[in-house]
Amino acid sequence: MPGGVNSPVRAYRAVGGTPIVITQGRGARVTDLDGREYIDYVASYGPLILGHAPQSVVEAITNTACRGTSFGMPTEAETTLARMIIEAVRSIEMVRFVTSGTEATMSAIRLARAATGRSKVIKFTGCYHGHSDGLLVEAGSGATTFGIPSTPGVPPPVVRETLSLPYNDLTAVRWAFETHPTEIACIIVEPIAGNMGCILPEPGYLQGLRALCDQYGAILIFDEVMTGFRVAYGGAQALYHVRPDLTCLGKVIGGGLPCGAYGGRADLMRMVAPQGPVYQAGTLSGNPLAMAAGIATLTALQQPGVYDQLEQTAAQLVSGLEQAARTAGVPVLCTHVGSMACCFFTPGSVRNYEDALRCDTKSFAAFFGHMLDQGVVLPPSQFETWFVSTAHDRDCIRATLDAAAQAFDAIAHLARN
Ligand code: KE4
Q1: What's the pLDDT tens digit per position in 355-412?
Q2: How many angstroms separate the alpha carbon of residue 62 from the centre of ligand 1?
Q3: Is 120 annotated in the active site?
Q4: Which CATH superfamily is domain 2-52+305-416 in?
Q5: Which fold has domain 56-301?
């Protein structure tokens, strides 16, 4: 396997060393091949909001598997999970399941282009929406240059219709619309950016994107693959009271199995084949196992107080990290929203990708290594988000903060000598 992994971030290129290989997960912890246990903040990059192998999810998968794993024909479970999502996310009137976040965003953009008859797409630098060709673009210089490929294998014409603008900057978006008033099909945005570390939208930012899309007749797509059911049962759009036209989901709705979805305004979704002309398909879309895991997960998340508990856990973690860093004299900025958190190694503020790039990634790498040595595994990059689950109890947070105090001390000591 290239790099020994099936997704690049797992290879530890940003932090060095050899990745641990996991044999099992239970609750907030994972165990590696050497039998070492770690408190886990990777959480499969988001899906495991209930921790590893929650009983209700495992039972749902097991009971479903005994009756067959995939049929290529409709099942009741697809309708059940679709109804749960439509009831949870007010802007979603119809939904289509796919098997990854990449498929969800790729399909939503195709739909937006079909619905508007336009081809240009605005995304934001540092936001990640999966690896479909049209979204693998380098940021142009400011708001003037359309996308150039960020990877070999993507022909320049494919990304020429994609404009990557700074996050949290409405002026750049306004300029783009003024320059191309009738050509922009959609804006796709992570309402809370989780792929350049965790960066919150500034007050009015999402509302501003909504207003500009209304003014110029473009579709507003919220990529909630990471934030959907993670920061609130209704997603980030419920927290910020902004109604997108289309929403992309993934991760949590599959409860740890391959699942994505896109949905939104019925007049748009009715354009999707076979009801409409916009083609999109998938062998394992809505597969019974992912549906069962998703239903069990969302059912657990409907319990009163779950999101308050998750928010409190993340808040305790972040305030403890800030305290430990301050005591050691290591400049960090921590952010959190719902059960997403991040620790930027920087003395400054972080409102976009340019700011995030100023972080001291060497210190992050050292911190990562010290934490791993003490039995805490973090996402192996400064530009990832940490995830807490309902299984992260007080003991987990206390142990994590004890490890962090030592890790910050070690970094500060290194910096002094
Ligand atoms: P997948 O195709 O990986 O299921 O989803 C792509 C995607 C789309 N939108 C958002 C907001 C996402 O965060 C993601 C995937 N997130 C990364 C974590 N940074 C997945 C980890 C990985 O690539 O291995």
Answers
A1: 999 999 999 999 999 999 999 999 999 999 999 999 999 999 999 999 999 999 999 9
A2: 26
A3: no
A4: Aspartate Aminotransferase, domain 1 (3.90.1150.10)
A5: Aspartate Aminotransferase; domain 2 (3.40.640)
